[in-house]
Design goal:
It is built from three helices and two strands; from the N terminus they run H-E-H-E-H. With about 45 residues, it is an alpha+beta fold. The chain has one domain (about 1-35).
């Protein structure tokens, strides 16, 4: 729930693009493959 709380407060959020995160946060967070360091780095 901390991701949802961060988004509701206007704080940028980064979360995994796996499981149900994509359904919960939609386009309100930066979604990355947490197992791919290059992808995480390239998002910034």
């Amino acid at each position: 729930m901390t991701t949802v709380e961060a988004i509701s407060c206007g704080i940028p959020a980064i979360c995994s693009n796996r499981a149900s995160f994509t359904e919960i946060v939609g386009d309100k967070a930066i979604l990355v493959n947490a197992k791919n360091e290059k992808e995480v780095k390239d998002k910034f």
